[in-house]
């Protein structure tokens, strides 16, 4: 059987059952492809030659026993965790192994993959473009068929945005759905782990595998996602937030998103305009809470317990530690952190109100398609603005899906589908129905 590496997870499982090929052959095909293409893409930081299970690529902020885990930072250059993250153990019981650790922005801080201490990952659709971030290597590895699927982490968009820019599916689960034990903490009140993958149905399957209670994560509330057949519900109400289509959204991306919404309407959905009035404050609130928690979480990398000195932090990490320390300092705490926490509540309430009128909300994932490597790296504010449509889901703790919905200048565009807390099922149904009537995911980058 040719082309083992282009199969979806479901197809791999079926083919293994039918003995069309062995796990050994599957891993060999992937290792060969990785050897050929990784030098071009820089998607993997470490490759595991001895994987004998279904090969998954794991973002390098997720701890893997006996496999180096650097968070793409020099400060953890030699860190080999003595234990597996809970998600790795859960995948293991399903027959899934780690084929490699993927490049990302250092400590998951970034939107382009360029903040890695080990060099940028390239977008498989155009090697001069960024793949998005921070789960840059995970998204590039899936798009280039260098793994069956990948895990990423999403604190402000880091699963959805690179999935969108690389033309693959990405699912950020409800906060608390998936254990973060073994995930290197960035912003503990936003961090989630989820799949970056080749189809919506596969995303549902992986969510079922990795969700559910874990005593090792106090915020993992124990609601396991149970996959049901993703059947389209007629008369589903889809909300389109007017704030997500204003200034800043590239007109060509806007057109692609509007066409996708039309397609959903043709499928029988009821399309309604909704409003998320506090959206304009989301970015400011996000970066205050994000940097505050970073300044606290990264205090553990003090050069004593983790070998190397703090000089080994990159620019963006240092910037955020300083901003967060400032925001939390006495005299400024009320003005910044407390205010941001209040905005967070308002944003959550915006979604609750909108969801009284609709079942899911759709819009763009990213205001533009992938940009040139180097284009935004010296302008943090412009870089932060690329997260404008993704961060609100993290502030509100709700699930969100990114699915391929077209191209602009041969670069992929992702449609975002946001749902009520704990209702991944409905966003997956919408994504699945859309996927069935379109062919975007069959389009592959030429490498
Ligand atoms: N790009 C956002 C940031 O830099 C989100 C990162 C993430 O989700 N890890 O914070």
TrEMBL record:
UniProt keyword Transferase present: yes
Enzyme Commission (EC) number: 6.3.5.7
GO biological process, one term: translation
Keywords: ATP-binding, Ligase, Nucleotide-binding, Protein biosynthesis, Transferase
SUPFAM superfamilies: Amidase signature (AS) enzymes (SSF75304)
Keyword Transmembrane helix: no
Subunit structure and binding partners: Heterotrimer of A, B and C subunits.
Protein name: Glutamyl-tRNA(Gln) amidotransferase subunit A
Organism (species): Candidatus Daviesbacteria bacterium GW2011_GWF2_38_6
């Amino acid at each position: 059987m040719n082309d083992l590496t282009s199969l979806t997870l479901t197809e791999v499982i079926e083919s293994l059952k039918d003995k069309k090929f062995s796990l050994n052959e599957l891993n060999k095909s992937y290792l060969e492809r990785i050897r050929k293409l990784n030098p071009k893409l820089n998607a993997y930081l470490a490759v595991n030659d001895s994987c004998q299970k279904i090969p998954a690529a794991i973002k390098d902020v997720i701890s893997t026993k006996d496999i180096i885990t650097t968070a793409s930072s020099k400060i953890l250059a030699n860190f080999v965790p003595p234990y597996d993250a809970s998600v790795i153990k859960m995948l293991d019981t399903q027959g899934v192994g780690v084929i490699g650790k993927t490049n990302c922005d250092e400590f998951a801080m970034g939107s382009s993959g360029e903040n890695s201490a080990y060099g940028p990952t390239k977008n498989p659709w155009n090697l001069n473009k960024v793949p998005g971030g921070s789960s840059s290597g995970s998204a590039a590895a899936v798009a280039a068929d260098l793994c069956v699927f990948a895990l990423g982490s999403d604190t402000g968009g880091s699963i959805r945005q690179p999935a969108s820019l690389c033309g693959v599916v990405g699912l950020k689960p409800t906060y608390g759905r998936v254990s973060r034990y073994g995930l290197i903490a960035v912003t503990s009140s936003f961090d989630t782990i989820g799949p970056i993958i080749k189809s919506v149905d596969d995303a549902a399957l992986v969510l079922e595998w990795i969700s559910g209670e874990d005593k090792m994560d106090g915020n993992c509330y124990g609601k396991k996602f149970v996959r049901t057949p993703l059947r389209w519900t007629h008369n589903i109400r889809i909300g389109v937030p007017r704030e997500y289509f204003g200034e800043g959204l590239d007109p060509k991306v806007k057109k692609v998103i509007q066409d996708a919404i039309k397609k959903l309407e043709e499928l029988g959905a009821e399309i309604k305009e909704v409003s998320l009035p506090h959206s304009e404050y989301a970015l400011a609130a996000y970066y205050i809470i994000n940097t505050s928690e970073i300044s606290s979480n990264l205090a553990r990398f003090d050069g004593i317990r983790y070998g190397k000195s703090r000089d080994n932090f990159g620019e963006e990490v240092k910037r955020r530690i300083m901003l967060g320390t400032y925001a939390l300092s006495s005299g400024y705490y009320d003005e910044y952190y407390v205010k941001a926490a209040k905005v967070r509540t308002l944003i959550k309430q915006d979604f609750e109100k909108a969801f009284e009128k609709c079942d899911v909300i759709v819009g763009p994932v990213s205001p533009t398609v992938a940009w040139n490597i180097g284009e935004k790296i010296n302008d943090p504010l412009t870089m932060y603005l690329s997260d404008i449509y993704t961060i609100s889901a993290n502030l509100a703790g709700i699930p969100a899906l990114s699915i391929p919905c077209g191209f602009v200048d041969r670069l992929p565009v992702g449609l975002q589908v946001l749902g009520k807390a704990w209702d991944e099922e409905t966003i997956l149904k919408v994504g699945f129905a859309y996927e069935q009537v379109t062919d975007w995911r069959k389009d592959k980058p030429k490498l």
